[in-house]
Amino acid sequence: QSILKTSIYSEIPWVNELLSRWKFIHSIDLRLERANVDMTPGMFLLCSVGAGGVAFFLAAILGQPTVMCFIFGLIAMFCPSIYLQFIIWKRLRKFLEQFPDGLDMIAQSLQAGLGLTQSMVFVAKEVPDPMGTEFSVFIEEVNLGLPLGDALNKFEERMNLPEVRLFNTALMVQREVGGSLAELLTKLSNIIR
Predict the structure, then answer these.
(1) Are the C-beta atoms of residues 46 and 9 closer than 8 Å to each other?
(2) Other beta carbons within 10 Å of 79
């Protein structure tokens, strides 16, 4: 796991060091990863605080009382977070729509004689975002030496869905017990549908 890239919370080294100590920054980083937004948590915080500051000063310029300025500032400060949550919701929904078809593609590739990793590479290339992107990240982690179980856990962390948890459990049980993975994935895709 040490060969995988570490999270960068800010481009400025001392800010990165400071932010890495706070727990809630890790959750912001995970949310940005789930939304597939190319932004550091430090930049996201800066945008949130900036939006709050701009709203506060605009309300002050318009002659609002100080309490109202603070209220407008707080509302504006949480707007980027609400928008990020909306992006995550849309992306998870799209992933869930693509997931059964992706599982069918993996099952058909396995029946055609490919291994599990090659089947996932095929899905990563053929299926658009978000499923293609998430499988690409998963394959990259496995290729960099992360054990399959850990890569599956990170995949489940990014795509926080019960269906993904079911997929991970099915893969891990199949690795322990054996059996036809293609048949298992076909049944799983039918269950998810």
Answers:
(1) no
(2) 14
What would the 3-class secondary structure string for 101-167 be? HHHHHHHHHHHCCCCHHHHHHHHHHHCCCCHHHHHHHHHHHHHCCCCHHHHHHHHHHHCCCHHHHHH
Q: What does pTM read for this prediction?
A: 0.85
Q: What is the pLDDT along the chain (193 residues), one digit of tens a residue?
A: 444 445 677 778 878 788 878 888 889 999 999 999 989 999 999 999 999 999 999 999 999 899 999 999 999 999 999 999 999 999 999 999 999 999 999 999 999 998 888 999 999 999 998 999 999 999 998 888 888 889 999 999 999 999 999 999 988 888 888 888 899 999 999 999 9
**Joined tokens for residue 126:** 């053929």
Instruction: List % helix, strand, coil for the chain (3-state, nearest 5).
Output: 80, 0, 20
Judged by DSSP in three states, 1 sits in coil
Where does residue 22 fall: left (phi above 0), alpha (psi -120 to 50 degrees), or beta otherwise? beta
The residue length of the chain stands at 193
